[in-house]
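pasting for ref
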Amino acid sequence: MTAQLVGVDRDAVQRRTLRVLWVSAVLSRGSVSIMFPVSVLAIKDMLGSDTWAGLATGAGTVGSALSAMWLASYMQRRGRTPGLSGGFAVAGAGGVLAIVAIQASSLLLFVPAMVLVGVGSGTSNLSRYAAADLASASRRSREISTVIFAATFGAVLFPLFIGVAGDAAEAVSLDANAGGFAVAVCFFFLAGLTIWLFMRPDPLVVAGGVDPNAKRRDGVPFGRAMAIAWARPLARLAFVTLIVAQAVMVMVMAMTPLHMEAHGHSNGTVGAVISAHTAGMFAFAPLAGWASDRFGRIPTIAIGGLTLVLATILTALAGEAPRLLMFPGLFLLGLGWSFGFVAGSALLTESVDLGDRVAVQGAADLATNVASGVGALASGVVLSMSGFHTLSLIGMTAAGALLIHAYFEHRLAQRLAAT
C-alpha cells in the first residue's frame, strides 16, 4: 500500500491541480502545435524533397514514445509534479537545439532535436492523467476533457502566428522556420515552471498512487504493464482506441501541409486548416467528456470511430486540396480523435488497479506513439508514391477496424461480467 497524505482536502487539491494543468496545457500544446508543422517544412528545405518529410513528425513521436514509459516510471516513484515539469524542460532544450540545426541546415542535428521536442508532446499527453488522479468515476472523463479543452487556446492560436514568427526570425537574420521554434521554446519552459511552482501538493501522492516517503520503488516494466492491460477486455479496448485514434490523426495531419502546399496554398491557409484541425481536437473535448460520462465509454469510442471514418472519406476526396473539403475533413479528423482520446483515457484509468495505473498509462502512450510514429514515417512515402487519397483510405480502414474491435470487446466484457 502507498501512503496517502493525511488532513488534505482532496477536492481543494483537485481544483488547484486542474487550474495548473489548464495553464500548462495552453502553453505546452500551443508549443507543440506550432513546432510540428514548421518542422515538416524545415525537413523539406534540408532535403529538397517531400519523400521523407514525415521524418520530423516521426522523430518527435519517437521522443514522445520514449518519454512515456520513462516519465511514467519516474512519476510512479516521485509523483506528477517533478515528472511533468522535467519533461517540459527537456522539450524546451530540444527546441533550442532545433534552432541551431535549422541555422546550420544539419539534418543529423535536427532529428535528435525533434526527438527531444517530442518529449514535450508526450509530457503534455500524460498530463491529462493527472486530472484523473483525484476525480470521481462520474466525472473522470469530464475532468480529463477540461485539460484537453484548455489546450485549445494554445493549439488553435499558435499556428496562426507561423507566418509572423517566420518574418520576425528573418528580420534578425535567422531562417524563417526557426521563428516558430523560438516562440515554442519560451512557452515550453513556462509550462514546466508553472507545474513545478504551483502543482503542490502532488495529486498522485494525495491519491495514494505514490509514497513520497519511500526510499525506492521500482517502476513496472513495459512488458508487465502491457500484460496487466491486455488481461482485461476494457483496458485492451482502451489501448487499441488510443493507438488507432492517434495513428489515423497523425498520418493524415502530418502530410496536410505538404499536400496543400503542392496545390498552391499559402502558409497562411495551411496554418488556418491546421487551426481548424486542432480546434476539432481540443475545443469540443468537454462534449466528448460529457458524452463519455453520460452515455458510457464504449458508445463514445464508437462515435469517435465513425467521425474518423467520415473525416478520412472527405480527405480521400480532396485530391486537389480544395478548401471546401480540407477544412471540414481536418476538423472532423481532430474531433474523432478527441472522442476516442477522452473516452479511451478514462476507460484505461478505471480498468486497472490504482497501483498499476501510472505504469499502464505510460505503456499505453508509448504504444500509441510508436504506432503513430511508424504511421508518420510511412505517410511521406505513401504521399510521394500514391497520393493523399491513399493515405486517407488507410486511415479510414483503421478507423473502421476500431469500430469492429469495440463491438467484440464490449460483448466479451459483458460475458465475463455475467459469469
